[in-house]
Write a structure and sequence with these properties.
40% of the residues lie in helices and 17% in strands. With 169 residues, it is α+β, with helices and mostly antiparallel strands. The chain has a four-stranded mixed β-sheet. Strand 1 (30-38) and strand 2 form a beta hairpin. The chain is elongated, with a radius of gyration of 32 Å.
């Protein structure tokens, strides 16, 4: 009996020795993320342990599922823009929102703020996001430049202005 008891305890020790590195490896794969969701009356805080390779849209979906039932929010993750959160949970609106196809590890951030957006606002924001390049300096090759047209109507100065100035011309 003493042999079976010793094998059970050594087997349990081996099992624990194998499980603890797995737990450490698993904890390295998942990290704790904070999602702030501004509601009508307050800012809701949701803590979620998620794998780093998850996309922001899926992470948003999981965070929305963990919102308490007494605080109803829209459960569709497509209706939210994801921003960097301030300390008080409000979004930093001076930075652009994250693209939803980014992975969590690519953002380099652990604290996010979800802002509910209606369809019309989202459409306007996408059009603004597409027009981030300033095309005012671009000039079509088929349209002549306006500066050339303006210069045509100005009287041309003579080349010998120095001689005219000295009174020799």
């Amino acid at each position: 009996m003493s042999q079976t008891d010793s094998t059970k305890t050594s087997g349990q020790k081996v099992k624990k020795a194998l499980i603890s590195p797995l737990k450490e490896a698993f904890s390295q794969l998942t990290k704790s993320y904070k999602f702030f969701i501004p509601n009508e009356e307050e800012v809701l805080l949701v803590l979620v342990d998620l794998p780093c390779h998850l996309e922001l849209q899926e992470a948003t979906s999981r965070a929305l599922k963990l919102v308490p039932k007494q605080n109803p929010v829209d459960q569709n993750p497509n209706n939210y823009d994801i921003y960097v959160a301030k300390k008080n949970g409000q979004p930093k609106m001076d930075f652009p929102s994250y693209q939803t196809n980014l992975r969590l590890e690519e953002t380099g951030n652990f604290v996010f703020s979800l802002v509910h957006v209606t369809y019309s606002e989202k459409k306007v924001r996408k059009s603004i996001r597409k027009s981030t390049y300033d095309l005012s300096h671009y000039q079509s090759p088929t349209i002549p430049s306006r500066s050339k047209e303006i210069n045509q109507y100005q009287p041309k100065q003579e080349k010998n202005w120095l001689l005219r100035f000295l009174g020799c011309a």
